[in-house]
Amino acid sequence: MVTKTQPYVVSDGVAAPQEESRTGWVTFAGIVLLVGAVANLFWGLAALDKAAFLDEGALLYSTSLETMGWVALGWSAVLLIGGIALLARATWAPILGIVLASISCVFWVFTMPVLPMLALTVILIDVFVIYGLAVHSIE
User: Fold this and answer.
1) Which of 32, 9, 124, 14 is nearest to 86 (CA)?
2) Which of 38, 41, 61, 136 has minimal CB crowding within 10 Å?
């Protein structure tokens, strides 16, 4: 449940600004983006190392595993910034979170042939992030 911010609350004769409160969906989205940053970091490092469990021939887009590894490392840094912004309750962070989760869905579609179950799981979680931020964070 979202409570509206009231400019001042009088308690015991003292007027003080009431803190803004949001639902747990914003915290959930921030934590998911941070976990996604760590997961992409490991995926990118594994791709750069050409791990045995990653099949370069199975990539949906004809690119090298090394290129996808560098993209995953860069994406990890962007997700880290988005997750920190959401947890810090920046006013622009929910919009950024929706954009990042949407781009993450597209990124994981391209990695689906290589890691199908992980890709489907990440896409599902990204859909929850988009829902939570779209419905519960914008007042």
Assistant:
1) 32
2) 61
